[in-house]
Amino acid sequence: MKVIVSGGGTGGHIYPALAIAKGLQEAEAGTEVLYVGTAKGLEAGIVLQTGVPFRTVTVEGLPRKIGVRLFSSLLKVTKGFFQAMQIMDEFRPDIVIGTGGYVCGPVVLAAVLKKIPTLIHEQNAFPGITNKLLARLVNRVATTFPESVKYFKNPGKVVVTGLPVRPEILNARPEDGTDLGFAPDRFNVLVVGGSRGARSINLAMVEVLEHFHNHAGVRLLLVTGESGYHELNDRLKLRGLDPAKLNNIIIRPYLHNMPAALAAANLIVCRAGATTIAEITAKGIPSILIPYPYAAENHQEYNARALVDKGAAVMIKDAELTGRKIIENVELLRQDIQLWHKMAEKSKALGRPDALQNIVKLAQNLLK
Ligand SMILES: CC(=O)N[C@H]1[C@@H](OP(=O)(O)OP(=O)(O)OC[C@H]2O[C@@H](n3ccc(=O)[nH]c3=O)[C@H](O)[C@@H]2O)O[C@H](CO)[C@@H](O)[C@@H]1O
Predict the structure, then answer these.
(1) What is the distance in A from the centroid of ligand 1 to the CA of 92?
(2) Same domain, 83 and 172
(3) The domain containing residue 340 runs over which residues?
(4) Is residue 135 located within the same domain as residue 174?
(5) Is ligand 1 within 6 A of the CB of residue 152?
(6) Separation between Cα atoms, residue 209 and residue 20, nearest integer Å
(7) Is residue 307 located within the same domain as residue 177?
(8) Among 103, 168, 195, which residue has the most ligand 1 atoms within 8 Å of its CB, making it the best to mutate?
(9) Distance (Å, whole) CA 11 – CA 123
């Protein structure tokens, strides 16, 4: 089988595409995969690390107002569409799968016009604009949440599969986390602000790092995002902390080995992006969630509430975020082991490790 997967911009769209690619390869030996993304989005770096063949098309989001930028964006999207048509002719895929982000627009559209079977996956409860438009044209729409079905014009082609989690995440074991500073006999805390990092979390973390550095019982791994890394390091230095000498704390701009970190983490402090949520519940990790307040339709708070209501997570609103609140919640869960166990169980109960199989079957059925 030959498959094109496409999803771009941020990690939340990229990793589900990689998961589906891997799932199809594991289901059918000899499956050939091509990832189509943009040169500018995070996918260029992430996909390169995986060794999956990668090709690019040019594309960008269309501004909502009429003006010079709209004209130049339309030109780029048109160029991207013709590049995608050429990729279809050269690679000749049996199926094209899109997981959201602007890049999916021209890629999936080219496949539709070439009469290649198409499938898109929507991670969030509130569908993104590209997926809403493409849903009218593709053969099948897979969603994470039943709640999103109503936003699509043809509910008949929508299937609720859950969000496909990378097999590497499902298979990683706690001992894999030792290279990242985690230890089996310590309370391991992973802090990550989504695939691009979160400035408000980084700023609050200065106080948290001051509190926990040299703490014998805690290991902490903070992923700042590429853009926030230097600012955080500078702020720590201003407080007299040398980021290179924090002993029990590691700070990274980005983590390619997220499977190892998630396998070893006892607690995660993070944004509430849909892909992250699917991963932490698949692993059964308790979480402190700080939803990104400007996500479309405030969908991250909606994601977070689903976990908080079931007792799997604690939520701190971004506007109310302080280092002290993070410290208090980490200490509470570290010291109250029964509460921690209860939250871990509730988190695991919300996980959908079957989602990858569901979407793999959906793709295979489309080809029958
Ligand atoms: C601001 C915004 O609108 N963000 C959206 C974006 O978030 P974002 O791209 O941040 O998506 P998520 O938090 O859902 O997923 C991040 C992905 O990147 C991985 N990762 C992250 C950091 C790192 O250092 N290494 C790494 O591997 C995570 O394991 C996960 O697989 O897409 C999600 C899925 O459509 C949405 O739900 C989010 O609301």
Answers:
(1) 30
(2) no
(3) 168-350
(4) no
(5) no
(6) 37
(7) yes
(8) 195
(9) 12
Q: Above 80 in pLDDT, residue 220? A: yes
Any idea what the CATH number is for the domain that residue 235 is in? 3.40.50.2000
Q: What is the pLDDT of residue 60?
A: 83
pLDDT in tens, 260-297: 999 999 999 999 999 999 999 999 999 999 999 999 88
Which atom of ligand 1 lies at the shortest distance from residue 271's CA?
Answer: 13
Q: How many CB atoms lie within 10 A of CB 296?
A: 11
In this structure, are residues 305 and 315 in contact, taking their beta carbons and an 8 Å threshold?
A: yes
Q: How many structural domains is the chain composed of? A: 2
Does 152 lie in the same domain as 268?
Answer: no
Both 242 and 359 in one domain: the answer is: no
Q: Rounded distance, CA 177 to CA 259, Å?
A: 9
Same domain, yes or no, for 211 and 327?
yes
* Contact between residue 277 and residue 123 where contact means Cβ atoms under 8 Å apart: no
Does residue 229 share a domain with residue 323? yes
Q: Where are the alpha helices (H) located in the chain, listed in sequence order? A: 11-27, 43-50, 68-91, 104-113, 129-134, 167-171, 199-212, 229-238, 258-264, 274-283, 299-309, 323-335, 337-350, 355-367
Q: Work out whether the CA dihedral 95, 100, 104, 105 comes out positive or negative.
A: positive
- Residue 166 alpha carbon, nearest atom of ligand 1: 31
**Token pair for residue 299?**
């969908």
Per the DSSP assignment, residues forming a β-bridge with 251 are 222
pLDDT of residue 61: 80
pLDDT at 64 over 80: no
Whole-number Å distance between alpha carbons of 257 and 221? 12
